[in-house]
Amino acid sequence: MRHVQAHAVKEARPTRENSRLTLKAPAKINLFLKVLQRRPDGYHEIESALQKVTLFDTLYLARQEESIAVSCPGGRVPDGEENLVYKAAGHFFAASGIKQGIRIVLEKKIPVAAGLGGGSSDAAAVLHGLNRLFGAGLGLEQLKDIGLQLGADVPFFVENCSGAIATSIGECLQEFAAITAYWIVLVNPGFAVSTKWVYENFPLTSYANPYILARDRDMPVNIAHALPGLIAELGNDLEEVTIKHYPEIGAIKKDLKRAGAVAALMSGSGPTVFGLFTEKKDAQKSYLQYQKAYGDSVFLVRPYIP
Hints:
The chain has ten helices and eleven strands. The protein is of the alpha+beta class. Strands 1, 2, 3, 4, 5, 6 and 7 form a seven-stranded mixed sheet that branches. α1 (84-96) runs parallel beside α2.
């Protein structure tokens, strides 16, 4: 396993030809998630393996003279200042000192509040996009610093990597090779789960359960070679909260394994569950079966390779 290396991003100066930009923002899954401790500032330190997957939101950026305008067809997320994309643009302009505006249209395909990191990925895409459109020349570490102000997952999406071990509150990253041997079925049961609510109800926040702490171990150099056993061993600590309130998540996990998944786990704070399949035909069969129950909230994806 190697540490992700920072490098400068080469940017073009703005011209009429590059006044517009279309970007794809990938989702992620947590191959495991251990909650280590709660910090005095209220954040939780974690250890998790994050893997980007080929499920994307699409963002259309267009320069304008002033102000930030964000719209999301279908109204799946708010258009105004509450949108993380809007906040990302505001933070970028404040950090770069650029006095111009941007119009952003966000087409959502990644389910909202689903444990797939859609909002964080959208924010990271905006930071990279604005850096290009306005020729700001901000380096990767600067973009990650801006991203961390928006959310703990944003630096991971700023990085040009497929997967990484995330520690601290999620911003310390060590890259690993993509798990290319697997087909991945994502099943979202169609309801949203608040990450804030899950962490607030996690037993460790009251220090009532000392046994849930992640065991000390060195992460393998090649995550793919350690799967699926690594998922079974480390799991996702947050399932204890989410499945207790939404037992349907536990049922989906069991069904995916019965369908041939070599591992199944809730991603992040949920409610999306992923199943890893070694055989494409098994993954396709499971995908089609779940589509009947959950419609367009089910996806058949692969690991995303930037």
